[in-house]
Structures are given as structure tokens and as C-alpha cells.
Amino acid sequence: IKLKDAVGRKFSFPWHLCNTWKGMERLIKQAFLHVNVIGEHVQQGHYDLTGPEGEIILPQDWESTIQP
What we know:
Protein name: Ubiquitin-like domain-containing protein
Distance between the termini: 6 Å
Order of helices and strands: EEHHHEEH
Oligomer: single chain
Structural class: alpha+beta
Pfam family, one: ULD_2
Organism: Teratosphaeria nubilosa
Radius of gyration: 11 Å
InterPro entries: ULD_fung
Largest sheet: 2 strands, antiparallel
Domain Ubiquitin-like: 1-68
Number of strands: 4
Mean pLDDT: 94
Strand content: 5-15%
Helix content: 25-40%
Number of domains: 1
Low-confidence stretches: none
């Protein structure tokens, strides 16, 4: 799964690590551990993940929405 974050960094996460919301959340929190200001908000779960068309993907819809 390809991810571009709020500070412009790009990540490519292996499918088997992010095909569940819990797995994706873990990767995102790791990516923001040492990011000033916004990192604390991410650690508290204050973020949205969006699809390629800009639509917000809700946690409960993650597994049925994303594809490798």
C-alpha cells in the first residue's frame, strides 16, 4: 500500500502488514514517532486516511475498501 503523509513523505507498506486497520495504524504511528507537532496528534489517533480520489476511509471500512 502506498501512503503519502501530511508532511509530504511517501511510504510503501507491505500488504500483509497493513491489510487490517490495526496493522495500518501500527505502521502509521511508527512513521510519526519522531515528527514534531503533528506526531503527537497521530499517536492519539487524530488523522484520516484517504483513498486515491480523496475519500476518507473509515476504520470499520478499511479491510473491505483497500486492495493490494
